[in-house]
Task: inverse folding
């Protein structure tokens, strides 16, 4: 937790979820400061819209204007609420909307933190096009290295006249004036056929691997449990393809699709409605921070395909390296579509799966098997040690390979063979 001077006021801000090992990391950045500087002399009239405010720095600074905080991340909403409380600001002073909701009409000011994914940015700009006016002040910000020609072209194409600022503290602004340029309609989702099934998988803009099945999910689908009873959780469900298959293979079980991305959960629901409509009553769809607030001993199985990078920098570097190896150049495109919480988490794959292992103890008496993909083999030893510490009775590893890509998944249980057979 640290203090930041924003808009002439001092705020106490913290990243979420709190991580003692990452206390030095700030919950705001230069792009936030740069955006707020533009409003010093601005008379705000009409609704204030803030898009993609990761930890709530902008919402705290502009709380007196009753802003709308719009984004796809439930973790960002939790972070904003927590930081409002830290600064004795009423949570009700900020209205939260997810990116698929209708935006307020005729906003006076729109502040955008530019997301990494162009698909999400396009969806948000198209939504703004329906509500902004030529008088709306539209300002976006990002790290200077993340403002590309393709970013500016999208603003110009969807909203209108677009200019950029000079860099300040390695941040850059995008100024846009709405001129209602001619624009063709675009589908709300991107769809593709899932090989070996009659299913069509629908993906909202900010869903991981929205353009096709990733290698981890492809392998995972071949090894899902069958004929279970009780309840199965698809943790970090994305478009829900894992839960969809689990639903089909376990006709006597219920499936919970849960993710911190609103678009992921909406995609999962859409895919059940389109592909297995008769099974919708066996499903629950929940936007949540992991399994927070879920009662112990609820699930028979928890399935997870976790993020594998330890930072946004690592995710970007990995994508650039793979692009170079494929002869596509090192432009900063990510190797997969999706939002940052799906591609990386603080502490990387070990931290993510370690948290899952610790949380699995609460379900030890009911869940027969817990499973998780493990992208890197050198991450296995600390995970094995932790599984021993928490009392896992059975641990299984299964290797997988596709071309030069090597990976594996692990499964663990707190029940012996006799209990698992019951």
Result:
């Amino acid at each position: 937790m640290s203090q930041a001077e924003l808009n002439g006021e001092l705020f106490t801000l913290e990243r979420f979820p709190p991580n003692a090992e990452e206390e030095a990391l700030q919950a705001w950045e230069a792009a936030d400061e740069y955006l707020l500087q533009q409003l010093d002399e601005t008379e705000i009239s009409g609704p204030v819209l803030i898009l993609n405010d990761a930890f709530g720095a902008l919402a705290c600074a502009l709380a007196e204007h009753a802003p709308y905080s719009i984004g796809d991340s439930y973790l960002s909403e939790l972070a904003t609420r927590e930081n409002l409380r830290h600064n004795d600001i009423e949570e009700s002073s900020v209205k939260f909307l997810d990116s698929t909701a209708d935006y307020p009409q005729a906003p006076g000011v729109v502040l955008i933190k530019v997301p990494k994914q162009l698909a999400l940015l396009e969806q948000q700009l198209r939504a703004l096009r329906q509500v902004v006016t030529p008088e709306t002040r539209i300002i976006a910000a990002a790290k200077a290295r993340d403002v590309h020609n393709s970013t500016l072209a999208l603003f110009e194409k969807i909203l209108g006249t677009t200019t950029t600022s000079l860099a300040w503290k390695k941040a850059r602004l995008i100024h846009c004036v709405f001129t209602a340029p001619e624009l063709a309609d675009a589908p709300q989702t991107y769809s593709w056929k899932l090989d070996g099934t009659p299913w069509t998988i629908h993906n909202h803009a900010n869903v991981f691997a929205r353009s096709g099945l990733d290698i981890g999910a492809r392998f995972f689908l071949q090894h899902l449990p069958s004929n279970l009873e009780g309840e199965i959780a698809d943790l970090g469900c994305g478009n829900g393809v894992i839960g969809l298959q689990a639903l089909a293979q376990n006709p006597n079980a219920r499936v919970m699709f849960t993710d911190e991305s609103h678009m992921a959960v909406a995609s999962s629901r859409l895919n059940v409605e389109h592909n297995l409509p008769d099974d919708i009553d066996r499903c629950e769809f929940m936007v949540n921070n992991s399994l927070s607030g879920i009662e112990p001993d609820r699930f028979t199985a928890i399935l997870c395909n976790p993020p594998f990078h330890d930072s946004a920098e690592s995710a970007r570097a990995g994508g650039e390296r793979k692009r170079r190896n494929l002869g596509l150049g090192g432009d900063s495109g990510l190797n997969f579509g999706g939002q940052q919480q799906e591609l990386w988490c603080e502490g990387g794959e070990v931290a993510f799966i370690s948290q899952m292992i610790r949380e699995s103890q609460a379900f030890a008496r009911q869940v027969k098997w817990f499973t998780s993909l493990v992208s890197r083999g050198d991450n296995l030893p600390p995970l094995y040690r932790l599984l021993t510490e928490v009392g896992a009775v059975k641990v299984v590893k299964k290797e997988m390979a596709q071309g030069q890509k090597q990976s594996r998944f692990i499964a663990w249980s707190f029940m012996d063979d006799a209990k698992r057979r019951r």
Summary: The CA atoms of residues 222 and 354 lie 24 Å apart.
